[in-house]
Amino acid sequence: MTDDAAQTEPPAPARERHDLIDALRGFALGGVLMVNLASLTLYEFLPDAARASLPTAGFDAIALQAMELLVNIKFITLFSLLFGLGFSLQMERAQAKGGLARFVRRLLILLAIGLIHSYFIWWGDILLTYAVVGLLLVCFRHASNRVLLAAGLTLALLLPPLLSPYMREVLSEWPKQAEAYAGALVAFSSPSLTEALRGNIDMANWARVSNWALLCFVLGRFLLGYWAGRRGLLQYPHRHKVLIVRLFWWCLGIGVAMTVLQFTQAGLRQHYPLLDSEASKFLIRVLLRAGPLALGIAYATGFALLFLRPWWRRGLGVLAPMGRMALTHYLSQSLIGIGLFYAIGLGIGPRWGLAGWGLAWVAIFTTQIALSHWWLARFRFGPMEWAWRSLTYGRRQPMRYPDAGDGLRLAATSSSSARDAEARSPLS
């Protein structure tokens, strides 16, 4: 192989894509956008009295309950599982070619993108954490499947509650959430770009420290996604349908039960003093962490089972181009949200509560789906995916199709059945 050939690797053609993984990634990105709009609209920073004074307060109370039940933590769980699955396939592909240097370089570039996004655009960035945790994932490349499952569950469920008492003491002098949110609301409601940037940096630093358990959250889910990637659950769903069905029903049952516990545990502890012991409270904290994880897995497996049905595959496949441009869309969602709601943009702010939040979600998500189809009918990659890939290989990658009809044929087949070939990274 020539040096040039080694530096320019062709993208996976349509027949080698896993449409299920692409579509599921697009679905997950829609949920992540819904959650991220809580802070992008500035609603999250409002004190209770200000929320109660909004004209949409009655609707907001109902919508927030629905968000808590169906969306919060579940979709970032799904997104993280998919990211771990994709990284596992990239890592094993790199190992098969004789080294992990390119995989590590890819993560370091993502880390740089995350740093820029987090500190200069939007403080709620997840890419920086994904890059750091992805590098840690290299340490597990020789671990058995049992070790991946055990380590993933331990990190996701047990380690944060164990460390929490010590971390509360360590962070006792760190600003409380109410103080940090009040400062953020002032900064992002200011028309001064300097003030907004300063507030963003302050929030980015505060979030990295105060949300220390995010590393355990993400690494645990990455390891579970790594296990799923090794098993080929979403690459070859027809082969694993029995296991996928079992995972769906078990995780759905656990998730629903733990969600009920979330809303009833305070009353139960009052009526049953035994449940108010330290050991019982620790167990409850572990169980409450299991709920969103189980529901995230239920969403993934339920989506996969629907995708196996031809009629559902045609409908859900509409999301596949969105999933293939996930990095571009994730970053653009931050820019759009800031442009709409921050005072340095249009300054809409939180005045319309969750009604405005929901309308923004519909407008942004549907537009991004449409743009994904248009763009990938003409180009091989999304803009940021192309830049990431070119930097990874150290050479400008081909952007356009050699034949203009190739892109149109790719778009036409984007909803076809899941492929029996290698999936690429969730943000590739």
UniProtKB/TrEMBL annotation:
The keyword Acetylation does not apply. It comes from the Bacteria. Keywords: Membrane, Transmembrane, Transmembrane helix. It holds the Pfam family DUF418. The keyword Ubl conjugation does not apply. The chain crosses the membrane at residues 23-42, 62-87, 99-116, 122-140, 147-167, 209-227, 247-266, 286-308, 329-348, 354-376. Residues 228-394 form the DUF418 domain. Signal peptide: none annotated. PANTHER family: INNER MEMBRANE PROTEIN (PTHR30590). This is DUF418 domain-containing protein. It comes from Pseudoxanthomonas sacheonensis.
